[in-house]
Design a protein that fits this description.
CATH superfamily of the largest domain: Alpha-helical ferredoxin
Order of helices and strands: HHHHHHHHHHHHH
Shape: globular
CATH architecture of the largest domain: Orthogonal Bundle
Distance between the termini: 20 Å
Bound molecules: iron/sulfur cluster
CATH topology of the largest domain: Fumarate Reductase Iron-sulfur Protein, Chain B, domain 2
Structural class: mainly alpha
Number of domains: 2
Length: 201
Amino acid sequence: MNTFKIGENTFELAESIIKDLKASDNLGILKCIQCGMCTSTCPAARHTDYDPREIIKRVLDKDETLIKDDIIWNCFYCYTCHSICPVNNSACEVNQVLRQKTIDNGKGKSKIAPFSEYADSYLESGLGTIPSDFFSDLIKDYGNEWIELKANLEEIRKELSLGPMLLPKKDIEDINEILEKTGFTKRLERVRRCKDEKDTR
Ligand code: SF4
Ligand code: SF4
């Protein structure tokens, strides 16, 4: 595990991100030319104050406050920045590492708790589905057509000669076994507990 702690740096911030398991080989943070292509294509930057180019600049400036800054939670891992960067850098991966550092430093628990609902769907149906908390926003965006599509999905699939979306029970059981053996289920329990835990620093 990476040993980076706020105020006790064994490595500089950028170095510690490059060495993290979550980072791709040859992640190009140190080659960032601040061209801003990541920001110009980032959907989160379009709708919020979040700016991936700025995140990388702050990493290069050894700005440890980034780890406590809520702004890193605005990225939603679409990987657009990753695919467009001319020097093989990835604000997306950098954010993943920064978030882990936040958690390691006792912060951000309330931010990760909602992810458990995505994970629950793998256990329940073997598929990643949208948590019900998002339904009202989806209805707002897509109108009642979205509810109708959801309610009649299996019928529509049949008309299109597609098989059922839901997996057979045996497949769901197999997926649960894989999730158990790979440590996913245990990790999910830890994430669920975060709902009731307060940040410690
Ligand atoms: S696209 Fe790459 S090089 Fe350009 S600012 Fe973003 S991270 Fe830096
Ligand atoms: S992965 Fe994050 S930083 Fe990159 S483009 Fe998507 S939202 Fe923006």
